Amino acid sequence: MSKIELPIDSGTWDPMEEDMVSLDFIEFYSEEEPYRDRSVVGKKIICLIEYATNKFLPLIIVYSKHQFLHFTSSTTGGVTASFGMLGDIIIAEPNAYIAFAGKRVIEQTLNKTVPEGSQAAEYLFQKGFIRSNHTT
């Protein structure tokens, strides 16, 4: 079962904006990954939020490494910072790694040791940040 199928009723998945693609207005070039091949996830999320708001619908966003709130492992960096911390109800998969920055980055920046396990869903659940760390 995919992460999309977990929180929804069978047969109700109706994708939106499937034909949306990145446009390269500034002719950005990278040998590693051409701009036109990059994801448009941010714009799709904005469209989804606007749609849900206009229709007065609840919105669940499922995160993963590339994509109430449901955290999967790992949810880090910009995903956590930009909208991952803003949910009214936040749930997470057991043992999900959830952090604004990785342990090494925090330790190097603050010159302090990050306690072992402090970026795991169970720790964040104990501290009240996550409502539930159980999957359905």
Automatic annotation (TrEMBL):
GO MF annotations in UniProt: acetyl-CoA carboxylase activity; transferase activity; zinc ion binding
Alphabetical UniProt keywords: Metal-binding, Transferase, Zinc, Zinc-finger
Annotated CoA carboxyltransferase N-terminal domain residues: 1-136
GO CC terms, sorted: acetyl-CoA carboxylase complex
Gene3D superfamilies according to UniProt: 2-enoyl-CoA Hydratase, Chain A, domain 1
Keyword Mitochondrion: no
InterPro entries in the record: Acetyl_CoA_COase_Trfase_b_su, ClpP/crotonase-like_dom_sf, COA_CT_N
Keyword Metal-binding included in the entry's annotation: yes
GO biological process: fatty acid biosynthetic process; malonyl-CoA biosynthetic process
Subunit structure: Acetyl-CoA carboxylase is a heterohexamer composed of biotin carboxyl carrier protein, biotin carboxylase and 2 subunits each of ACCase subunit alpha and ACCase plastid-coded subunit beta (accD).
Protein name as annotated: CoA carboxyltransferase N-terminal domain-containing protein
Organism ancestry: Eukaryota, Viridiplantae, Streptophyta, Embryophyta, Tracheophyta
